[in-house]
Automatic annotation (TrEMBL):
Function: Specifically methylates guanosine-37 in various tRNAs.
Taxonomic path: Bacteria, Bacillati, Actinomycetota, Actinomycetes, Micrococcales
Gene Ontology MF, one: tRNA (guanine(37)-N1)-methyltransferase activity
Subunit structure: Homodimer.
Residues where S-adenosyl-L-methionine binds: 111, 135-140
Subcellular location: Cytoplasm
Name this protein carries in UniProt: tRNA (guanine-N(1)-)-methyltransferase
UniProt family annotation: Belongs to the RNA methyltransferase TrmD family.
PANTHER family linked to this entry: TRNA (GUANINE-N(1)-)-METHYLTRANSFERASE
Keyword Metal-binding found: no
GO annotation, biological process: methylation
The reaction(s) this protein catalyses: guanosine(37) in tRNA + S-adenosyl-L-methionine = N(1)-methylguanosine(37) in tRNA + S-adenosyl-L-homocysteine + H(+)
HAMAP family per record: TrmD
Amino acid sequence: MRIDVLTIFPSFFDVLEVSLLGKARGAGLLDVRVHDLRDWTHDRHRTVDDTPYGGGAGMVMKPEPWGEALDAVTAGSERPVIVFPSPAGELFTQRTARAFVETDHLVFGCGRYEGIDERVFAYAATLGEVRLMSLGDYVLNGGEVAAMAMIEAVGRLIPGVVGNPDSLVEESHEDGLLEYPSYTKPSAWRGYEVPPVLLSGNHGAIAAWRHEQQLLRTRERRPDLLVDEE
Ligand code: ADE
């Protein structure tokens, strides 16, 4: 899978070198290319923003560098998915991550300031499938941290990136519920005991207990996830 990132802060993505995704890149499972949007400016100051038409606070990212950058990274690619992280986008979920991992080519366009000139999204839609995606109902300073989160969520679903594929199946959100609690040795620690059922060796009872814990947790912490089932 190929991922291109367009940003004015390429160094934000240096951490992709470490950890699981670094290994995935080394193994050739994931080809991430991070580009400085300013490479597609042509003035001495490498300007990427300007004041908004109609007035208002802040600066808006100019369309021209985005147009050239999108042309360059999508050249030769069959309609990639072009993601613009935005608090005004649709919610990114595990379901989105599973859909994105099926694509061969993802492009992340990281906006800063008050946003990107709206015409860029219309133009991008002529090159690929445009998705404005939000991480949640809060505002970050720009798309970089959101893009990193999405790259990690998608990257770890690439077959071979996570060592034991079973661990992908049993985690939070894969079955619409939060994950059950986990314990390891010792069975008693500072007065806290591991639930006895987990030491029973009764696999049926353990599976039933875990499912019940998933439901309890989800009802308590994220009742919004259960609305379809109740
Ligand atoms: N950019 C700024 N805030 C964001 C958010 N909540 N999600 C995605 N991108 C963003």
